[in-house]
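We store sequence with structure; for instance:
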Amino acid sequence: MKRINFILITCLFTVISCNNDNDDQSERTNITLNFNHNWDETPFTNANFNTIQYTNANGEEMSITKLRYLISNVTLTKPNGETIVLDGYNLVDVTNNTDLSFTPITAIPLGVYSSLSFTFGFNNDANYNNNYTDLNSVSWNVPEALGGGYHYMQLEGKFIDNTSTETGYAYHTIRAVNNSGAIQVFQDTFFEVNLGEVTVSNNSTFDIEINIAEWFKNPNTWDLNTLNNMLMPNFDAQIMMFENGQNTFNLKPIQ
């Protein structure tokens, strides 16, 4: 009789354990981040490339001919402060209309999170040794003379300069480096984008809006006549880009 009871109890615990495992699986999901672009609320895609049709905060008429940027360390923070960091990174390439959506492979528990965030670019732990073959193959590297590692963003186009001439610009963001002394001095210019509180349900999709115009206006009004090329080795320019990037990304409200 005792043996029968033991077997019954064992089976009962096994059933409960299996049910709990199933519950854990059913309460986890993958999330997707969609990256949408605009110029001061006017939708922007690569169909808008190569035409001078935008005016920046400094009054310069300009176009966009290339736009791609990298995001990493997608993180969800629980109300108790615990964080879930999702593996992987994503090179958003508006130029070629690729990777405008990113679905990390890590499944996460459903529920309310106090914040959804990601890193613009790579942090220092990831941004070294040029060991990402996929990024190397698309010329995302930074020259060793500027510290190596990878770009955070490449934004290029043309503008009408103060002589009414159509002139190219290359607004490239990297880790800021000062080469003026005997040794290189670096300053971090990656930054965390905190999109605020989110609710994760089955296969949740979050639409992230990027206002390209913000890169040129807040808090630094960008003068393309003086800051248009050779910006990667320009320490002060990289700091200004870092500051302007803080206001670029927003989570689109769920309708």
In short: The chain is about 15% helix and 35% strand. Residues 31-251 form one domain.
